Amino acid sequence: MHKFLFILSFLFGGIIFSQTPDNPWRIFIGINSVDIYPTGADQNTTFSSQGELFEDFFNVADHWNFGIPAISLSRNIKGGLSIGLEASLNKIKRIEGQTDSDFSYYSAGGYLKNSFLLDKKISPFFNLGFGYTSFDLSKSDKLNLFSKNLHKTYSLGLGLDFNLSEKIGISINSSYKNPYENYGVKHFSHHLGLFYSFGIPDSDKDGIPDDRDSCPEDPGLKEFNGCPDSDSDGVPDNKDSCPEEFGLIELDGCPDSDGDGLSDKDDKCPEIPGIIEMDGCPDSDLDGVSDDKDECPNINGDPLNNGCPWPDSDDDGILDKDDLCPEEKGNLINNGCPELSNEVIQTLNEFGTKINFMAESDRIIGRKAINALKEIKDLLDNNPNGNLIIEGYASSEGDEIYNRKLSERRAKSVMDYLINLGVNPDRLQTNAFGEDNPIGDNETIYGRSINRRVQFKTKF
């Protein structure tokens, strides 16, 4: 009895875990007792082994034989069903009349076990098994695994698991072992000990171990590697951009209410079919501006004008945005402004005859020329609609190329002077003609002097 208590204290000193679906593997270690008397194998039992006749074999007053170890390894299959292997060793002692007799006993085999959880602490179970049992009657000091009394046995057992905590427990069970061969020994085998269960945890209890669970903290589905599909749209939550709304697989689980191929969360017009490039909104007039931003959604317009066509207020064919005179009819060359009248141009040229230049010079000198330019500025102010071309000329002295450049400088000198007086530079343009179109005889001093001039005409 002291030896039995020592064994129990040793076993309870370890860390032992109870078997659950979370910890499907179990190792059991304990003591065993072989009990032959209740089966009817008493003093009159006969064993046929090694050709000898054994009678009066067991001492009826002491038919309990304790031994170690009893071990098993099992694996939970589903629910309370497990499959395992077990083995035990023992000594059959105290044969009447032979006080020094010890016979080795061992048993090994496989079993199916089914448990029923009554509460968190107690689990009754039954088991069915098949294996081999040996009573070695040779009195050998060595363990003889293949003695002549080795026989097949079928077993049926009942037991209780006591769960000390979520993973710790004690197991006790009794099995009746019936031999297949007629020389076998019927007997009971009792086991008492602790079990150690282990395995990969399943934190979210969804039946998928954490090492294979893509969402170990959230109960999920096997087909999604343990991840849930809250909206049941076929897209697991960890890949679902809209996990609370039933959606389409091709849109990462998001809905598309208007069926335009853009998910509602990205669609600025989720109830109206639209164009993906326009954030799901339609463009009814096909002007490149979506209806939600188009101030004229049914009229093809310009994106720069918020989807509306540009107006032409004066109906001169030039849109207001390009028309420098949007309230007066003009022409394209004049940027939408009307031309200067012939009378105005004639007057300008009359003033222009008073602007002459010294030979090889582009300087404006003399009171007469300066007053003429002031008159021109006043005339342009009084006729704001129309642009002016300033043409520069030269006499024939010198090189032709030089004279053309000189005439260009003269025209620009007049333009700069008018700008300094306050004329809008957008109304002015220069052109250079050099020796072309003389109005005087270049063979005379007077003719050359009047050829060094500027002329004006309206801008077409």
What can you see in these coordinates?
- The chain folds into four domains: 197 residues, Porin; 54 residues, no CATH class; 53 residues, no CATH class; 117 residues, 2-Layer Sandwich (60s Ribosomal Protein L30, Chain: A).
- 15% of the residues lie in helices and 29% in strands.
- It contains five helices and 13 strands.
- A hairpin with a 2-residue loop joins β4 and β5.
- α2 packs antiparallel against α3.
- The longest helix is centred in the last third of the chain and has 22 residues.
- The chain is rod-shaped.
Strand fraction: 25-35%
CATH fold-type name of the largest domain: Porin
Strand order of the largest sheet: 1-4-5-6-7-8-9-10
- The radius of gyration is 58 Å
What's the helix-strand series?
A: HEEEEEEEEEEHHEHEHE
Give me the CATH architecture of the largest domain, please: Beta Barrel
Tell me the quaternary state. Answer: single chain
Number of structural domains:
4
Average pLDDT, rounded to a whole number, is: 81
Report the end-to-end length measured between terminal Cα atoms.
129 Å
Write down the CATH class of the largest domain: Mainly Beta
Task: Write down the overall geometry.
Answer: rod-shaped
- Helix tally equals 5
Please count the beta strands (DSSP E, at least 2 residues each): 13
Low-confidence stretches: 1-18, 41-61
